[in-house]
Design goal:
Largest sheet: 5 strands, parallel
EC number: 2.7.4.10, 2.7.4.6
Radius of gyration: 17 Å
CATH topology of the domain at 6-32 and 83-210: Rossmann fold
CATH superfamily of the domain at 6-32 and 83-210: P-loop containing nucleotide triphosphate hydrolases
InterPro entries: Adenyl_kin_sub, Adenylat/UMP-CMP_kin, Adenylate_kinase_lid-dom, ADK_active_lid_dom_sf, AK3/Ak4_mitochondrial, AK4_mitochondrial, P-loop_NTPase
Distance between the termini: 19 Å
Strand order of the largest sheet: 2-3-1-4-7
Number of strands: 7
Protein name: Adenylate kinase 4, mitochondrial
Subcellular location: Mitochondrion matrix
GO cellular component, one term: mitochondrial matrix
Number of helices: 8
CATH architecture of the domain at 6-32 and 83-210: 3-Layer(aba) Sandwich
Bound molecules: guanosine-5'-triphosphate, adenosine-5'-diphosphate
Strand content: 5-15%
Oligomer: single chain
Order of helices and strands: EHEHHHEHEHEEHEH
CATH class of the domain at 6-32 and 83-210: Alpha Beta
Helix content: 40-55%
Amino acid sequence: MAKLFRAVIMGPPGSGKGTISERIAQSFGLKHLSSGDFLRENIAANTEAGVLAKTYIERGLMVPDNVMTRLLLPRLEEMTRHSWLMDGFPCTLAQAKALNSTCDLDLVISLNIPYETLKDRLSDRWIHPASGRVYNRGFNPPRVQGRDDLSGEPLIQHDNDQPEALVARLRHYKDVAKPVIDLYKSKGILHTFSGTETDRIWPYINSLLSTKIPSRPETDTQHIPMP
Ligand SMILES: Nc1nc2c(ncn2[C@@H]2O[C@H](COP(=O)(O)OP(=O)(O)OP(=O)(O)O)[C@@H](O)[C@H]2O)c(=O)[nH]1
Ligand SMILES: Nc1ncnc2c1ncn2[C@@H]1O[C@H](COP(=O)(O)OP(=O)(O)O)[C@@H](O)[C@H]1O
């Protein structure tokens, strides 16, 4: 069996982690894992961790490190047969250290996007809450305005995507991400991409990954379901 590939994508809110992760998953057949999706699944299933996490998310707070690691690390340990790309975890140094003790990462992608760009994107971000599907009126609009493409259900905007809340979220991201980025830099696995447009950044990420993972064969395009 080919060697498994394990990668993490980091970046401030709105930097395009979700958008780029989907492209990586499609092009290279990695499983796209998202901390936000794991949390939403646990909340929907009323698990102990989900009930606890909900109380933080509802208040716009980060979920405590021990809840995140208890939730995610066992799921990652189970993934012995698939290469994966994790989006949204680790967020803090404590999470990164816990992940380190569970697995060896091959690569970390860090997105470096100017504040003005983030502000513009997020103030125009529309979300389908049930699935986490994300739209942007200019970049990837829904087929019918205000409606999810697959379910037809209404799209919503997050209060914390508005400029006032965004400044605080970005400051917080910078503070907590810095030691994580430094850790991965010191391990020699950090690759930083800067720019204002996902479509301009993507070719660089694509060619970096092409040197590390074989491209997905044309015929093998089916979606791999979550375990
Ligand atoms: N205009 C524009 N919008 C983009 C571009 N790339 C992504 N977006 C949109 O910007 C918003 C944020 O992108 P996401 O992929 O959700 O970013 P994220 O880093 O996962 O964000 P968080 O989930 O908040 O951490 C979405 O509405 C995207 O559709 C781009 O190059 N240009
Ligand atoms: N690694 C993490 N550590 C702590 N909390 C997290 C983590 N990932 C996600 N969360 C929590 O889950 C919420 C939803 O995450 P996500 O879907 O990535 O969206 P966003 O960051 O855009 O709100 C976050 O606002 C945060 O409260």
